[in-house]
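To illustrate the input format used throughout this study, we show a single complete record. The first block contains the structure-token representation of the backbone; no residue identities are included at this stage. The design step must infer an amino acid for every position from geometry alone.
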């Protein structure tokens, strides 16, 4: 399979929204809302220093994506990166695309001085958990908590 890994741009937003719809159908903690996902992607693309989106492109279409953001970690005493939204079209899975996307984002974060990378994965997504384990990611004792603003 021929594909290209590259930094995303505004023209990729439509196809990335389709990919996010797929991802959020797996992750039960998130609801798909096209308007919200578009705003989020636009915000990611506004800051090319601290935010990064890569896409896997085949024949002019994005078939996979991964996002990351830089933040300061008091635990590490320096920069860390949060990786989100790793997704590959189902028909293109198991061909190394997810691995290349994740490695591209990891490289970007390490180049910026990140001391730690972190990500969230749905505890019921066994395929994703096995994938991350194979990429040397470790399960921690931490759990994710969230609180949403109620209007």
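Output of the design step:
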């Amino acid at each position: 399979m021929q594909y290209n890994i590259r930094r995303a741009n505004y023209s990729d937003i439509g196809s990335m929204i389709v990919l996010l719809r797929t991802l959020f159908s797996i992750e039960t903690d998130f609801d798909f809302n096209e308007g919200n996902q578009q705003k989020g992607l636009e915000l990611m693309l506004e800051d090319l220093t601290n935010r990064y989106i890569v896409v896997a492109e085949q024949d002019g279409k994005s078939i996979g994506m991964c996002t990351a953001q830089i933040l300061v970690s008091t635990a590490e005493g320096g920069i860390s990166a949060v990786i989100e939204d790793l997704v590959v079209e189902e028909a293109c899975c198991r061909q190394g695309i997810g691995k290349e996307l994740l490695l591209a984002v990891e490289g970007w974060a390490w180049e910026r001085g990140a001391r730690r990378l972190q990500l969230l994965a749905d505890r019921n997504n066994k395929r994703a958990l096995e994938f991350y384990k194979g990429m040397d990611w470790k399960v921690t004792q931490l759990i994710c908590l969230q609180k949403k603003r109620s209007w």
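Structural context for interpreting the output: The chain has a mean pLDDT of 93. The CA atoms of residues 29 and 145 lie 11 Å apart.
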